[in-house]
Amino acid sequence: MRGRIDQKVVVGVVYVSAMFMSILDATIVNVALPTIGRDFGVPTTAVAGVSIAFLVSLAVFIPASGWLGDRFGGKRVLLTAIVVFTAASMLCGISSTLGELVFFRILQGMGGGMLAPVGLAMLFRAYPPEERIRASAILIMPTTVAPALGPILGGILVTTLSWRWVFFVNLPVGAIAFVFGLLFLEGGTEHRPGRFDVAGFLLAGCGLGSLMYGVSEGPIRGWGSTPVLATVVTGVVGIAALIAVELRKREPIIDLPLLNNRLFRSCNGVMILAGATFVGTLFSVTLFFQDGRGLSPLTSGLSVFPEAVGVMAGAQVATRVIYPRFGPRRHVCAGLVTMAVATTLMTLVNQSTSLWWMRALMFLLGVSMAAVIVPVQAAAFATVTSAATGRASTMFNAGRQLGGAIGVAAFTTAIVAVGAFHRVAGHVAANLGAYHAAFLAAAAIALLALPVALTISDLDAAATIVRRPRRGRTVAATATGTLVPDAVGESA
C-alpha cells in the first residue's frame, strides 16, 4: 500500500498538516488571551506568558531538530513531534490553572520546534532541485494562510464555544497527520550526524530563548526595564558564545559554515527581514482593526483574511509564470517593493475610509509575500547537499522564527512610542497615527531587505529554474544560466 502513494505527496500532506496546526496555534491563541485572563482571574499582561512561553520553547528546541532528524530518521522524529504537539494541545485545553497552561505551552513548543526543520528537510529531500518551486508553493500554505485564518477561527471558537477549543481544534488535525504519516511516510536514518553537541545546544537554547523572551517582553514591560535588558544582553552574549564555540566544533549542532554558501546566506537574510515585515504587519493590522477601528475579533479576522487569498493567488502566478521565466532575484525584489508599497498605502486609511480599501491592501500584501517567500524557499537549498539539508533547515527556520518575533516587537514598540490612544476634544480616542507608524516601519524593513535580495544569484539557483513543458519539450536552466531544451523532451 505504501508504494502506491508518491513520497512527495505523503511528505507534503504530513508536513503541511503539521505546520498548519503549529502556525495556526500561534495566532489563534492570541485571540483567546483576554478570555483566558478573565477565566483565571488574572490581568491580560499576565496571560501574555501563554504566548511567550510557546515562542521561547520553539527557539530553544529548533536547534536540536536537525541533529535529531539525521540521527533517528525524519519519519520517527516528525511523527514524535506531532504526537508531542497534539498531546500538549489537549493538556492545554484541560488546564485548570494559568501555571499549568504555561507549562503545557512549553511542551507544545518542544513539539513545534521539531516540526518545521525536520519536515522541511524531508520535503526538500523528496523534491529534486528542479521541482523545488513546486515544493515552495506547498510550503507557503501553512506559513502564510494559517496566520490569517487564526484570528477568524479563534474569534468563532471563543465566541460560540470556549477558549479551550482553540487548543482542542488541533486534536483532529494532529491525529489525522500522525495516522497518515505512520501508514505511508518513509524515512529511516539517512545520515550520521556524529555525537550530539551538548554545549552548542545549551548555548543556542540560552541565547535564542533569552533573546526571544526579551524581544517579546520589550514592548510590554518597556525596553529599559531590568528583566528585558537582562534577557536581551544574555541572549546576545549567548549567541556570541555559541558562534565562538560552534566554529571550533567538527560536528556542531548549528552548522555556521553553511553561511559561506552565498545563495543560502542571501535567502536567509531576505527571509528574516521579509518575515519581520509580514508577521509584524499581520499583528499590527489586527490591532488596527480591533483597537483602532473598533471591530470585533471576528470582523477583524475576516478583514485580514484577503491576505491569505492573495498568497494563494500569488503562489500560483509565482510558480507557473514568474519564477520559471525570471528566476529568484528579480522575482524577490519585485515582491519586496510591492510589499513596501502596500504597507505604505495603509497609512492613508483612517476612521472614515471604507474597510474594502484596507482589505484590498491586505490582498496585495499577500500577493507580494508570495512573490518573496516562494522564490526564496525554492532557491535557498539549491546548492545545499542532501547531507547538510537537515542542518540548513534548522538554521533557516530559526531565522524565520526570530524574524517574525522581531517584527512584532518592533512594530508594537512603534505603536507604544507614538501612543495608541490620545485625547480629542477632551475624550480618549484611538490614535491611528500609532498604527500608521508601524506600517511605515514595515515598509522600511521591506526596503531594507532589497539590497540583500540583490545579492541572490540566479546562476547559483539555476537548477531550480525550470520552465513548464510546452509541446512535449521541457526547458531547463544550464550551468551557464541559459535556458535550453531538455534532451528527453527533444526525443519525445
Report on this model:
Mean pLDDT is 80; it is low at 471-492. The chain starts with 6 loop residues before the first helix and ends with a helix. With 492 residues, it is mostly helical. It is globular, with a radius of gyration of 22 Å. A hairpin with a 5-residue loop joins strand 4 and strand 5. The chain has helices at 7-40, 44-72, 74-93, 98-126, 132-160, 165-168, 170-184, 198-221, 226-246, 262-292, 297-304, 306-326, 328-345, 355-380, 389-418, 432-453, 487-491; strands at residues 421-424, 427-430, 466-470, 473-477, 483-485.
Question: In sequence order, what are the helices and strands, one letter per element?
Answer: HHHHHHHHHHHHHHHEEHEEEH
Count the DSSP helices.
17
Q: Give helix % range.
A: over 70%
What is the molecular shape?
A: globular
Strand sequence of the main sheet, in spatial order? 3-4-5
In terms of DSSP E residues, the strand content is under 5%
In total, the number of strands is: 5
The overall pLDDT average reads 80
Low-confidence segments, given as residue ranges, are 471-492
Distance between the termini: 32 Å
Helix-strand category: mainly alpha
> Main β-sheet: number of strands, strand sense, barrel status?
3 strands, antiparallel
Radius of gyration: 22 Å
